[in-house]
Amino acid sequence: MPAKRRCQFTGCTSAALRMIGECPNCSLNFCASHRLPEDHICPKLSDCRQQAFERNKARLESERTVANKMGTAQS
Ligand SMILES: [Zn+2]
Ligand SMILES: [Zn+2]
């Protein structure tokens, strides 16, 4: 019989959720209260945020370029 997984959040004694309790970022298992990256202060969260920020920035810049081109064509 497999041992019950415990939430990996420091100080938490709740049982980790199966499947959905695993954080896709840090691969640790958490209970319902801590499964979100924000809730267990995921060590990979800042990386993800930074990547999302960079992606968003690049997208906005490309959109702005397209908008400028359209504006030029219309005038
Ligand atoms: Zn927990
Ligand atoms: Zn995590």
TrEMBL record:
Superkingdom of source: Eukaryota
Keyword Zinc-finger: yes
Annotated keywords: Metal-binding, Zinc, Zinc-finger
Domain AN1-type: 1-50
Molecular function per GO: zinc ion binding
Pfam families associated with the record: zf-AN1 (PF01428)
Entry protein name: AN1-type domain-containing protein
